[in-house]
Amino acid sequence: MKFASSSPPGTRPPLRTLRRALCTGLGLALALPFAAQAQTAAYPAKPVKIIVAFTAGGTTDLLARSVSQKLSEKLGQSFVIENRPGGGGNIGTESVVRAAPDGYTLIVNSVGPISVNQSLYKKMTYDPLKDLVPVVQIADVPNVLVVHPSVPANTFDEFLAYAKTRPADFNYGSTGVGTSSHLSSFMLMQQLDIEALHIPYKGANALNDLLAGRLQFMFATIPSVVSHIHAGKLKALAVSSAQPSRALPKVPTVSSRIAGFEAGSWFGFFAPKGTPQSVVQLINKEVNAILPQLNDQMVREGADPVGGSPEQFGQMTQREFVKWQKIVKDSGASVD
What is the CATH classification number for the domain harbouring 172? Predict the structure, then answer.
């Protein structure tokens, strides 16, 4: 005698069929978390490429190499730095936006390409706030107002008084139009209603001319100038962060003289949109564990370690975009 494989219309399926379906569904539900764990456990199964959208030796590059070396040691795979400079960081950033979202291409990036360039460049082909996933913030790096020793000012107040008497021949350098170095100086001159000539450079050339006395002042990241400050080749008059820098604790903040002034750079890991959440959480967890090990080194070099969750990092980048959008507009800075 043969039994039908399915129940006639209008009748309930046999009890054993219900049990089989229930067990199958329960098995799938239980398997999903284990599958996610297995994916995380298998990562990284090969070397991970870390893009730096700037030249070797800069602040972004140095921070990326310090953290990536620790990641290599902890996770047993190479985290390899690849420098792709150009376009104010846009070239390297776009290469990560277009990369496969498998966790094997990440980027250590900074305020410019993430929160400034959309307002600065007229022909952006991607949106870094939407096309990249924030993973973890590495550090805040304040800018420091530095002057050549020939400038007759040893304090921030003396600098302000001197600037107001030299409207015709006061100049400052920057690492490029629309960079944090440029916009920090613009903010200061705007709030003080002081005229000064902006001379943009490409990267470190601005610092070279400041050291040679061809420029009078500039805002620079602390890691790029801290050795020159200690050697007496530059005078540090104020830092752009809300709180004093641990690397230069005796240098006052601009905000102690100009309420609300805050500008600087920050750095962190991003991944292509669509990167598995398990990978994002793993890198976040490991970097948070690494930063205390690098604390003394980073502080000595002028960076303040941060860490935190991906959500906190994402919220900060959004706030920075709103802030710098207005400043870029006010400055009139634009790049084709």
Answer: 3.40.190.10
Nearest-CA neighbor of 203 among 185, 233, 224? Answer: 224
If asked whether residues 150 and 131 sit together in one domain, one would say no
Domain count of the fold of the chain: 2
| Coil vs helix vs strand at 86 | coil
Owning domain of residue 216: 142-256
Which pLDDT does position 166 carry in this prediction?
Answer: 76
Report CA-CA distances (Å) from 207 to 72, 173, 217, 251: 33, 8, 10, 20
* pTM score: 0.82
Sole residue written with tokens 């376009």 = 87
Both 166 and 249 in a single domain?
yes
User: Domain check: are 285 and 318 in the same one?
Assistant: yes
Angstrom distance (rounded) from CA 113 to CA 136: 16
At what angle are helices 15-42 and 277-301 packed, to 10 degrees? 20
177 assigned to some structural domain: yes
Cβ contact 104:73 at 8 Å: no
Q: Which of 10-14, 96-100, 238-242, 318-322 has the lowest mean pLDDT?
A: 10-14
Helix (H) / strand (E) element for 81: namely strand 79-83
User: Do 224 and 182 reside in the same domain of the chain?
Assistant: yes
User: Residue 37 has what pLDDT?
Assistant: 45
| Torsion over CA: 229, 234, 237, 239 (sign) | negative
What are the tens digits of pLDDT across the range 221-237? 998 899 999 999 999 99
Q: Which residues contact 218 (CB under 8 A, 6 or more apart)?
A: 145, 146, 172, 173, 174, 181, 185, 206, 207, 210
Return the beta strands (E) in 177-336 as ranges.
197-200, 217-221, 235-239, 264-272, 304-305
Q: Do 104 and 77 belong together in one domain?
A: yes
17 lies in some domain = no
Please enumerate in sequence order all residues whose Cβ is within 8 A of that of 76, keeping only pairs 6 or more positions apart, or say none.
none
pLDDT at 5 over 60: no
Give the confidence band of 183 by pLDDT, cuts at 50, 70, 90.
very high
Residue type, 222: I
Is 244 a domain residue?
Answer: yes
